[in-house]
Design brief:
This protein is of the alpha/beta class. The protein has a single domain, classed as 3-Layer(aba) Sandwich (Glycerol-3-phosphate (1)-acyltransferase). The protein is built from 8 helices and 7 strands; from the N terminus they run ααββαβαβαβαβαβα. Strands 1-7-6-2-5-3-4 form a 7-stranded mixed beta sheet, sandwiched between helices. Strand 3, helix 4 and strand 4 form a beta-alpha-beta unit. Helix 6 crosses helix 8. It starts with a helix and ends with a helix. The model has no long low-confidence stretch (mean pLDDT 93).
């Protein structure tokens, strides 16, 4: 009986996701095809996330801020990644950023097209694609956008919320551009929507902690390693407090 109810709830979640996206799609299209208003997409992402979680979890979504972020500052947001819920969860951050995500997301009907046009996709198996995404990320930052990464490179952990090794891309961009990294801890999404088939949604509360920014300590390889270690330590310590 419980399993059947969870399947119904999961179907409901998919319908809410699709309907809220379709309502906002015309406005997303404007931000795609009219470059001067491209930054409208960040506002729409935030609205979408708020509406989605309002209906899905009856507004049980909490964002904890260690400090108020400067809306004029560009950041690199780095979050742990254990669930497909993590992307809309990041949308709860009201800031003008572009995601760097997997190329496979482009295959999602309609949503994948929008995502690929407004964000930066990368095929991590392709050196050319990785280099291209690097250049696009630098261009986005210089246009005034922030960047959002899942530094693990996907949902790869077999023991959530324990994290796998971080890739260097996010941290090298922060060092090269000399902009701060904001660690983000998402502690419970692997419980709400586990990464296993079939995808089954569970009721609960979305929680996300946005930590204070960490600035690069230099401009070389040591600075990249240093900020990567610091960001990981912040997220790991916060995950322990939610255990």
């Amino acid at each position: 009986m419980k399993r059947a109810l969870l399947k119904i709830y999961s179907a409901y979640g998919l319908v809410v996701f699709a309907l809220t996206f379709l309502v906002l799609l015309p406005f997303f299209s404007l931000s795609i095809f009219i470059p001067p208003i491209e930054k409208l997409a960040a506002v729409l992402n935030h609205i979408w996330a708020r509406v989605f979680f309002f209906f899905l979890f009856l507004n049980r979504a909490q964002v904890i801020w260690e400090e108020k972020l400067d809306r004029k500052q560009r950041y690199v947001f780095c979050a742990n990644h254990t669930s497909f819920l993590d992307i809309p969860t990041m949308g709860l951050i009201s800031h003008n950023f572009k995601f760097i995500g997997k190329m496979s997301l482009k295959k999602v009907p309609v949503w994948g097209f929008m995502y690929s046009r407004l964000h930066i996709l990368v095929d991590r198996k392709s050196l050319k694609s990785r280099h291209g995404s690097w250049l696009k990320a630098q261009e986005a930052i210089r246009k005034g956008f922030s960047i959002a990464f899942f530094p693990e490179g996907g949902i790869l952990t077999k023991e959530p919320p324990k994290m796998v090794a971080f890739k260097e891309g996010a941290f090298r961009i922060a060092v090269n551009e000399q902009i701060p990294i904001v660690p983000v801890t998402i502690p419970h999404n692997h419980i709400l929507l586990p990464d296993r088939m079939p995808l089954i949604m569970h009721p609960g509360k979305v929680v996300m902690k946005v930590h204070q920014p960490i600035w690069p300590s230099g401009d070389g390889d040591e600075a990249v390693k240093d900020i990567k270690d610091k960001v990981r330590a912040v997220i790991e310590e916060e995950l322990k407090s939610f255990a």
